[in-house]
């Protein structure tokens, strides 16, 4: 239940619907009990037509309340019907029908209002989860499978929503139905009701024992659901590779293994859950059977209970069975929901290590330099950078080159604060980037990556991503700088053309030019280019390189280069090896030094 207390805070904005639900549930529970109690006068009219109450009864205290109410209703029926018994029967049937109608109207209204609370909680939990997912650092998702995160925001949240209804029934409706019913049962026969209570705890113990392992089974089901959603997500992302390597059968086997485990866990869970209903019903009928024997003895032998009261009593006793079954089902729902809530709260309560400091400033300009001082960083166990130092002056272009794994992209990740340094500090204009808000820090930077990350939307919306209020003219101007305007105009709907999932309707060069246009429109003073041309053919590279050169004019740029021909005009070229600087200088200086950089250039020239 601890997890549900945390989830309940999401119900606070919808508490008025909760109170209305409780109010109508109270009325439902009351009328549910009264509708069965009203059967007594109807049965009296049928079975005791000669016994009429001709004088209005006198109320003599709470102990005789049941007899008073029964005599009063009989008196009213007699006064209305006179000598016509059918008239009295119609009146009593009408009373019973009105009570059952009101009971069901209140039931509908209770369900009507709880719907707003349930769906409101569902909406808010999902929104909060999405907000958290977007804010969590990139390192969080390198440890988690995407499919598992998707399962948590979809099926787990839905499971919590279903459990909410069960909990409110558990707290209000069903217990009150049982309470009101038992009060009326005590009013009819205290002796018989006390006898019933001997059996109810035994039945409750048996039912609760069945459900103890439900949370564990439910947790397995939800984890496995995350597993096969991950497989689907990875398959769709790498479908070309799967098909190119004829790996369909391999992935089918992996997916089938996961769904077979899901099948097994689900069967265990549902069969254990399904056991609750027949067990509860049989135990209930067993209680009814014992009641028939004991109550029948009171009617036929002891003559301490009249037949009409006993029949109504049996109806009331059966009326307890439905809420009792609902409570047992709801308790299972709570256990399942508790497992789902645990998984959802694990995401919601994950601490973001890359958070803004309390006194972080909003930095809106860049005036001097970016300084990387004595920085050491590791993703896991081994350091990727050690005691790294670099100074990037305003207006300069610094290129980072080196073999794969030398730490080039790590520098881009640290400057943009996708990761935090382990040691040392990175400063902009002498202010540690940890003391600058993430939003304003990233507002100073534009990023163009090797993999063009585009979204399933129009060209216009993809370019305008970094500037919400961008005009059509600004978007077009950015596209022209990026050498993208001409090919965009050739698309079926120009700037309003949808480019498909990840921009797959476009070529590699076209996608990259859209990424550049997006960065140009943002117009940041600092530009970070992470191997922006490495995946392109020669013609596309020329167009993209031209676009990059236009974009880098009058800007400070950190360029991570794979193709060394693209960075020969850089103000400074830094050669990295195993996280350390081995050479630094202009292209001409490094060529003259006749070291590692010259060898790299010659190797690419020969290639």
TrEMBL record:
Q: Reply yes or no: does the keyword Magnesium apply.
A: no
Q: How does it sit in the membrane?
A: Multi-pass membrane protein
Entry-linked PROSITE patterns: ABC_TM1F, ABC_TRANSPORTER_1, ABC_TRANSPORTER_2
Q: Return the InterPro entries for the record.
A: AAA+_ATPase, ABC1_TM_dom, ABC1_TM_sf, ABC_transporter-like_ATP-bd, ABC_transporter-like_CS, P-loop_NTPase, Type_1_exporter
Segments passing through the bilayer: 20-43, 89-114
Where this protein primarily resides, as one coarse class? membrane
Keyword Cell membrane recorded:
no
Question: Any idea which UniProt keywords this protein has?
Answer: ATP-binding, Membrane, Nucleotide-binding, Transmembrane, Transmembrane helix
State where the protein is found: Cell membrane
Domain ABC transporter positions: 370-603
Q: What are its GO cellular component terms?
A: plasma membrane
Q: Where is the signal peptide?
A: none
Q: Which GO terms describe its molecular function?
A: ABC-type oligopeptide transporter activity; ATP binding; ATP hydrolysis activity
Under what name is this protein listed? ATP-binding cassette, subfamily B, MsbA
This protein's species is Flagellimonas pacifica
